[in-house]
Amino acid sequence: MGSSVGGYRESLRVPVAWWLIGAAAVITLFVIVAVPVNVFVGALVGGLAAVLLVLLFVRYGGARVEVDDRRLRAGRAEINRTYLGTVEALTGEDARRAFGRDCDPKAYLVLRSYVPGAVRVQITDPGDPAPYWLIATRHPDRLAAALSGHSVGRS
Questions:
Q1: What is the pTM of this model?
Q2: Do residues 79 and 122 share a domain?
Q3: 11 and 110 Cβ atoms separated by less than 8 Å
Q4: Which of the chain's termini has less CB crowding within 10 Å, N or C?
Q5: 91 in a domain, yes or no?
Q6: Together in a domain, 141 and 83
Q7: 154 in a domain, yes or no?
Q8: How far apart are alpha carbons 149 and 133 in whole angstroms?
C-alpha cells in the first residue's frame, strides 16, 4: 500500500464476513415479512434494508488513511506532518488497551473494530486539543514507518 518512503495509503473497508451477515439479515427480514403479508411487501422491506445496509457499510468502511510528503489524513481529518511527534505501532493487546482503558478522551480516534492494529501519533501543534491521533490500521508497522520516514518491507 505504501509506494515510497514516507507514502502510505489504506482504505479501512468492512470485511467480507460483515457483508455475508448483512445479506443473511436482509434475506431473513424478507422472509419474516413476505410469509405473513406478501412477497411484494417482503421485497420492499428487504430492498430498503439492503440499501440502508450498503450505505452504512460503504460509509463506515470508506475511512482512508493516507500519508504523503506533506500531510497525514485519517478519516475526515488531516494534519501537516510538521506537527507530528512520536509514532508508535500497536498490535494485539496494546492496540485494544490504547482504544479502551488507556485512551485519552481528547485524542482523535479512527477506530474500526474489525481492524486489529493501530498507530498512535503524538501531535505537537499547540493549537490542537488532541494530544495524539490513534488510527486503526491493518499494517501498523508500515504506517508507522511511513510516518517516521523509514522503509518497511511488505509481508
A1: 0.79
A2: yes
A3: no
A4: C
A5: yes
A6: yes
A7: no
A8: 18
**Domain extent for 49:** 11-60
- Residues ≥6 apart with Cβ < 8 Å to 28: none
The pLDDT tens digits of the residues spanning 57-100 come to 999 888 999 999 999 999 999 999 999 999 999 999 999 999 99
15 and 84 in a single domain? The answer is no
β-bridge mates for residue 66, sequence order: 9, 73
Cβ contacts of 65 within 8 Å, gap of 6 or more:
8, 9, 10, 11, 12, 73, 74, 75, 110, 135, 137, 143
Distance in angstroms (rounded) separating the CA atoms of residues 147 and 85: 9
What is the arrangement of strands in the sheet containing 77-80, beginning at the earlier edge strand? 8-11, 64-67, 71-74, 77-80
- Are 121 and 8 within 8 A, CB to CB? no
Residues 12 and 64 sit within 8 Å (Cβ to Cβ): yes
How far apart CA 98 and CA 59 sit, in angstroms, is 24
Question: In which residue are the cell numbers 488513511 written?
Answer: 65
Q: What is the pLDDT of residues 11-65, one digit of tens each?
A: 999 999 999 999 999 999 999 999 999 999 999 999 999 999 999 999 988 899 9
